[in-house]
Amino acid sequence: MAASGFRVISSVFFFLFRFLLFSTEAVPVYSSHYCTDSLKFEPNSTFQTNLNLLLSSLTSNATEGSHFYRTRVGSAAPNSITGLFLCRGDTLSAACHDCVAAAATEIKQKCPVEREAIIWYDICMLRYSNQSILNNIVPGVDLFNAKNVSVKELGRFNKLLANLLNGLASKAENSMEDNRFATGEVNLTSRETLYGLVQCTPELSSFYCKMCFSSAIASVPNCCDGKQGARVLLPGCNIRKESC
Question: PROSITE patterns, per this entry (predicted)?
């Protein structure tokens, strides 16, 4: 995915998002990726060796029962590299490992010579960069379900959605636990429920977690207004919503 824009909107990659039915042991499902094309390395270089070591380390540490891990390989620029993974907060350890392993393999195919890249799967995210300070807001990807909410219900839907996502964001960003993750639901009708999920990387302070969530939630009306389901994927956080 080229670096010509910081946000990508797509209705191609989406999922049947059901919190109660979703299996946290499912096969990893690719969602999207982003390569910073302006930053490249030479094949068989020291940077590539360090990248391989980094991806191996991330995969190995995904077996330790943690949903988040960050590390750095190399002692000095231009060959030092920082990387991390984040698994969905309710994902089982085995599923997290499988997702990180798939991401580590796929990111080398999607971004074969880039010094900075990020890849998202349905239940995990993996990124690396030659920069030690990582941007948590860009790049961003918006994914949505093509199905629309009934026009007569749109106003109520948007109000309930905003309250749900903002409430979950507040809960996650102020959490004292290592896993900054929250899910919730609200009844739309007697037969339809609106589900929400938010998560930010545990390394972020409450302030920066809030900033990331605010950016993600603010993008929903622009990318996905009236859509039954959507995901907003940022490097530092992600949000999801689905009605069924």
Answer: GNK2 (PS51473)
Q: What is the pLDDT of residues 196-215, one digit of tens each?
A: 999 999 999 999 999 999 99
Distance of alpha carbon 144 from alpha carbon 230, whole angstroms: 4
Please say if the pLDDT value at position 162 is more than 50. Answer: yes
What phi and psi, each to the nearest 5 degrees, are found at residue 160? -65, -40
226: left (phi > 0), else alpha (psi -120 to 50), else beta? left
Backbone angles phi, psi at 102, to 5 degrees: -65, -40
- Over residues 107-135, the pLDDT tens digits come to 999 999 999 999 999 999 999 999 989 99
Phi first, then psi: what are they for 104, rounded to 5°? -65, -35
Closest C-alpha to 186, from 161, 203, 211? 161
DSSP 95-146: HHHHHHHHHHHHHHHHSTTBSSEEEEESSEEEEEES-SSPPSS-SEEEEE-S
Dmax over CA atoms of the chain, in Å, equals 60
User: For 33-73, how does the pLDDT look when each residue is reduced to its tens digit (9 = 90+)?
Assistant: 999 988 899 999 999 999 999 999 999 999 877 899 999 99
d(CA 229, CA 242) in angstroms, rounded, equals 4
Stated as kind and residue range, the H or E segment containing 208 is: helix 206-224
Helix (H) or strand (E) segment spanning residue 148: none
Rounded to an integer, what is the distance from CA 241 to the centroid of its chain?
A: 14
The rounded percent of the chain whose pLDDT value lies above 90 is 73
Residue 86 is inside which H or E element, if any? strand 81-87
